[in-house]
Design brief:
elongated, 4% strand, mainly alpha, 2 domains
């Protein structure tokens, strides 16, 4: 969870949460935390590890690699975006350059990769020209981080 996520759920300011999360420098005194602040933060239920439904950001490295694999297999960004429920531009950004993405999108990308990597795109309605274009683009431009 990000500091903003914690602040939103605890009803605290994000600045206060960031101060609490900050690790003191060596030799610096550890600050006391008010009991109400500690109770508000500690009372937040943690998101489930298997099915994160809460907002939060994660590294896009794995998702970028998975999307690049699908592109090399011939899946166009527009088809992947449609199945993920996002814009094709989002798929391209995650695949090529976005450093972080929402946790729920990362989980959906992982599931989509498992579902599609062994399937021929043409059997799923992808036109041969679109498949060829995606594969050609993948060979011209190294995709993923």
């Amino acid at each position: 969870m990000s500091a903003q996520d914690i602040a939103d759920r605890a009803g605290l300011s994000v600045t206060l949460v960031r101060r609490v999360l900050r690790v003191p420098e060596p030799g610096q005194a550890v600050r006391d935390i008010a009991r109400t602040t500690a109770d508000a933060i500690l009372g937040i239920p943690l998101p489930a590890r298997r099915e994160p439904s809460t907002p939060g950001l994660t590294s896009s490295a794995e998702s970028s690699r998975l999307l690049a694999d699908l592109t090399r297999a011939g899946w166009p960004a527009a088809a992947l975006a449609h199945r993920l429920g996002v814009h094709a531009r989002t798929v391209a950004e995650v695949r090529d350059k976005r450093p972080r993405l929402r946790l729920d999108l990362a989980v959906r990308i992982r599931r989509l990769h498992r579902e599609l990597i062994g399937i021929d795109p043409i059997s799923q309605g992808i036109r041969p020209a679109d498949l060829a274009r995606a594969r050609t683009a993948a060979t011209r431009h190294p995709l993923g981080h």
